[in-house]
Design brief:
The structure is a homodimer of 362-residue chains.
Chain A lengths: L1 E6 L4 E7 L6 H8 L7 E6 L3 H10 L7 E6 L8 H13 L7 E6 L1 H13 L5 E6 L4 H4 L4 E6 L2 E8 L4 E5 L8 H18 L1 H10 L8 H21 L14 H11 L6 H20 L5 H10 L12 H9 L9 E8 L2 E7 L1 H11 L4
Parallel strand pairs in A: 2-9, 3-4, 3-5, 5-6
Antiparallel strand pairs in A: 1-2, 7-8, 10-11
Catalytic activity (chains A, B): 7-phospho-2-dehydro-3-deoxy-D-arabino-heptonate = 3-dehydroquinate + phosphate
Cofactor (chains A, B): Zn(2+); NAD(+); Co(2+)
Function (chains A, B): Catalyzes the conversion of 3-deoxy-D-arabino-heptulosonate 7-phosphate (DAHP) to dehydroquinate (DHQ).
Chain lengths: 362, 362
């Protein structure tokens, strides 16, 4: 079993990585908590529930009260109404301040159940049990949130989990599209902090069909080590944590313009990273070998150009109303070189110019 | 201008106390922030808005964007739907991470606007501008929350304000009932931590008609000093902060059984304190002079007995489902003697017995 230590200002906890970990979550949880657990509330979604809910519930001691809640699968569940429903269920089940919430699923479940944990009776403990590759990123670092019709993740908190239990076997029930989506965040960690990881990935991964579980365990460990490193330095995104936004400023705009679900998060981040690399080359007059990465991305099935039916001027507008924006300016993460991220305010006309260049030609 | 320093683990800030302070809030805020303010969002209610909103808005520099939102007055506004509405307004106004929310009003406004600040983009700054005596307690310490139909303050966070601006002149627009409600929390602080305050109050305050503003400034300063002392020791209620719950276990049950609004919070707390004093005398076989306090309470217009139409068995049930309860047990704050609070698990039959004794006889 691999372990990555997450050492933030407000809490220190571990990510446990191993195939078939879901069968021992109850025992592991018991071994890590310092305060007794009065009851457990497993929140999962309609896709994950039939696959893994019984395994997780079965991993707990029979005498501990266990309640479960299944939310509809998909981003639409990160809503005020599902949030309120899960709160109601938690109260009806009689959860108290010693209860623990288990978030079993992808990023949507983790974000929603984490926000419930952050705000139920002003905060109770929770653990993340990610079942997607993409969630490796969101399950660590304590960012929890729901969406507002006017913007993604606009309502949320920082609330660190007690632990993250990563059963890599569960990833093998994911469709290829989901592997691709999650892998983009792994690549991102390479770009901003770990060249060695980036080179290793290019050597080991040229398709998403049957990556050996050994490789998956390794890449998760390394990718999470980057994340751990960054949130240890900056838990609440006042400095270096912003670097994790590499590729995301344009990605959020693309997702929002296309409508969530039309493109996966990672697919949008891939386009955003190529954009950010190109902008970095222009800005700092350096050669980051964008073409090489573009080819690798394409080999892995990513699109690297902005879909032709999107309007650059609309994307620009969305980028200006990003959560990280201040008073309409656009601040983006660029690379001076590999591993050297920097947060920079970019003039709108430079943004727009490059959007036009990267637009797919029909 | 009086100042009380609140020094918690997560933040250090001041309570400023003075008559007519509302006219200088903008200037004061500017002097205390360490990060620039991009815009201001004043949240207030329909009773306070016509009285003081213009004064507060006028206290800010003209070039700073100021937005306002008026919610309906009353406890019903601490709901999911008002929370969502205020979030929507905040997004529509384009608040960003450098914006500051001003909570102008009583405890309802403070709790709601504070919870919005705690969760807007994962947390932005806010200041409390209490306009009631009761809010002197809730405005300090960072507890923010909304209600759920299944329980009061069940959804919330800990989020400390940047400052508390207490304009004591605004208290003079309060009806006597509201003075009485707030004063109960002042008395509570005396009981659990400051005998001297308690004696001084008995000497100085025998009615709520025209207490001189000098006395009000003094009693706020002393009462807040107790609160400051406690939250400095324990920000998130893992130990001594629970003492602030003195009188509240029964009070919450009474409020909930009567329906919120039928009795003020402080009126319920007064009954709850007499109950807790009596239970303390029984439990520790000490003489706390309950009769003396009962007489003073009655002189001030408090009821000290449980309204006769309430059912002790129902109250007991509510006390067992309190947020502080764990797995159905009742934990109450008692006094070994004045200033010596202790949190104790009490057997349900002892609770019930004393409820019967303190029930008003028709």
């Amino acid at each position: 079993m691999k372990q990555v230590l997450i050492d933030t200002k407000s809490k220190t906890y571990k990510v446990f990585i191993d195939a078939r970990l879901r069968f021992t979550i109850g025992t592991l949880l018991e071994s890590i908590v310092t305060q007794p657990v009065s009851s457990v509330f497993v929140v999962t979604d309609s896709v994950v529930a039939p696959l893994y809910l019984d395994d997780v519930v079965g991993s707990f001691e029979q005498k501990l009260p266990i309640h479960t809640e299944v939310i509809p699968s998909g981003e639409a569940s990160k809503s005020f109404s599902v949030y309120e429903n899960v709160m109601t269920k938690a109260l009806e089940c009689g959860l108290d301040r010693k209860s623990v919430i288990v978030a079993l699923g992808g990023g949507v479940v983790g974000d929603l159940a984490g926000f419930v944990a952050a705000t139920y009776m002003r905060g109770i403990r929770f653990v993340q049990v990610p079942t997607t590759l993409l969630a490796h990123d969101s399950s660590v670092g304590g960012k929890v949130a729901i969406n507002h019709p006017l913007g993604k993740n606009m309502v949320g908190s920082f609330h660190q989990p007690e632990a993250v239990f990563y059963d890599t076997e569960t990833l093998y029930s994911l469709p290829e599209k989901e592997w691709r989506s999650g892998f983009a965040e792994v690549i991102k960690h390479g770009f901003i902090r770990d060249q060695r990881l980036l080179s290793w990935l290019q050597k080991e991964v040229s398709s998403f069909n049957d990556i050996p579980v050994q490789i998956v365990n390794d890449l998760l460990e390394q990718s999470l080590a980057v994340k751990a490193n960054i949130v240890a330095e900056d838990e609440t995104e006042s400095s270096v944590r912003a670097y994790l936004n590499f590729g995301h400023t344009l990605a959020h705009a693309i997702e929002s313009e296309l409508g969530y679900g039309e493109v996966t998060h990672g697919e949008a981040v891939a386009i955003g990273m190529i954009y950010a690399l190109k902008l970095s080359e222009k800005t700092f007059k350096v050669d980051l070998e964008v073409e090489k990465y573009e080819q690798w991305f394409q080999l892995l099935g990513y699109k690297t150009q902005i879909p032709s039916h999107l309007q650059p001027v609309q994307l620009l507008k969305k980028m200006q109303s990003d959560k990280k924006a201040e008073a309409g300016t656009i601040r983006m993460v660029l690379l001076r070189e590999l591993e050297e991220a920097i947060l920079l305010e970019i003039p709108p006309n430079s943004i727009k110019e490059l959007l036009d260049e990267q637009l797919e030609v029909e």
